[in-house]
Amino acid sequence: MTNFPIEAWLPTTVKEAKLRNWNDLDVVLFTGDSYVDHPSFGAAVIGRIIEREGFKIAIVAQPNWSDDLRDFKKFGKPKYFFAVTAGNMDSMVNHYTSNKRLRSNDAYTAGEKAGFRPDYATVVYCQNLKKIYPDTPVVIGGIEASLRRLTHFDYWKNKLLPSIIADSKADLLIYGMAEQPIIEVLNRLKNGDAISDIKDVNQTVFFANSEELNLIRNQRNCIELNSHEKCLKDKLLFAANFKHIERESNKINSKTLVQFYKGKAIVVLPPYPTMSSKQIDKSFDLPYTRLPHPKYNKRGRIAAYDMIKFSVNMHRGCFGGCSFCTISAHQGKFVASRSPESILKEVEELTKHPDFKGYLSDLGGPSANMYNMKGVDLDECFDCNRPSCIFPNICHNLDTNHNALIDVYEKVNANPKIKKAFIGSGIRYDLLVDKSLSKEEKESADKYIELVAHKHVSGRLKVAPEHTSDKVLKIMRKPSFDLFYTFKKKFEEKSKKFNLNQEVVPYFISSHPGSNVEDMADLAVKTKDMGFKLEQVQDLNPTPMTVAAVIFYSGVHPYTLKPVFTEKDPQEKLKQRKFFFWYKKENKGYIHKELIKMGKKEWIQELVGPGVQYSKPPPSKKGKVKISKSFLNKMEKEKDGNRKVHKRKKRR
Fold first, then answer.
1. pTM of this prediction?
2. What domains can be seen in the chain, in order of their start residue?
């Protein structure tokens, strides 16, 4: 599998292009990631789609943006356009922690080295290209462009930014999963249209002049959002926009969005229909090498690739609609599922990899158990405004039967070359234990839990309840924590049935809108009572185009415009995190004080235990300091130690 000729990858140099007898190119694609020719990497998918349609495409991975810009010049002008993506992640999420500290590594770069892409990579790459080739069109896409397609809150600059199409000077933005619109755009250009003529391809964003806007308004149902300038003046107007943006991103019958910026209209056309199994199969069945480009062989591992090297993505999209998540904003609410044949074909291909030892790291998707799920009556979904199909309750029209997924698992397990296929994606346990499930759905859910416990876990199953407080969970659009208890009990019972000692490992978020210190104390008490010592936790990172980011900036919920408390102070956010780690000695003093302050003395014994020591002894009732013998002995030992150090320094 590794003995591919260099021509098996899309060209990354002029020399490689000439090996294909390509002396000129139709598209040159710039990406902020190392080039991995795998269907989990957006640049590879779009590159292969363009190649499949008969166009000549080259990839420039992680160009140097601060030298003489030779990387931006090496292929010259393409026939149709430059394509630009920041990579598989927003470049700012890639670079910085939730406390805005610079990360020391980059999972999407060979050798995991940081610094191979700029902040706001899409904008920087575009501006460089426009500087060198001012008349050549630039088309932007990927998650960074997708989430920033309209006025958005940028956590790292702590202010509102306009649509990325304004700052980047790009000619066209394609949001979401771009396979369908990119083909239409290319064919239009091939047929003689100019990029400035393309104002009617769905899932695109562009500037429109007054004449073009009038035509669009006559032909389509439009919603005019509050302008960028109005949003800057009034946070409530910014928040009010979001309800329309989220709804129209996740409807079958979507309206066109219009937002003015500096007197110019930015137009967002509705998304393409959800891909059919046949369409999504065509995307996954392209001739990927499923390997990083050979030029990285001596530069070290690409961690993001190693993570998914032996995983299989079964579907796209997520109807969970979580307030902190960007999946539905980019991939859409409706699930596009691959056919079993396509999935099994990929599994078979993976078994041929020389490093394959018989274990699949994941058989899943954005949520592991949403495969093949959709509305029973799609007519009922046509004008549905719900951002989530499962919150505040599971929609009566949603088919949550797990039998199709179970069938795929069993076929994978039947492959003699597969020793074990793990489920690494998050499982939505509300789809498995909610009381509203029909008898048939409950039977399939129980069968699914049993199969996962028996054959698809090795000791620990990771799930994400995200919080324990119903108040916070409501803002998160997550189910009550009571369902976690139910699922945990069922999973452990199924595991014992097969004499397996397995556990559920929960993941949580701190500092989410609505969460205060008391909520975190509640989380600590409940998880400790269940026997958990949490190891991995996440502080909220307010990513553009999420409910959480809108609340973080505006202070109100975008659907109600009512105030929501959000902790913004970095030190206070860190204090919330301390309750995750109640068992650490250095946190006990702080937790003890906070529990007294919030009037929860009954939790002190449970979280902290007796005998908490402070760095300074408390004053006596008479106003004098009462010092215990143990404290005096400790001080004497420290003095003796200091004297010895002082003597050693003198001798030197």
1. 0.91
2. 6-203 (3.40.50.2300), 208-270 (no CATH), 278-512 (no CATH)
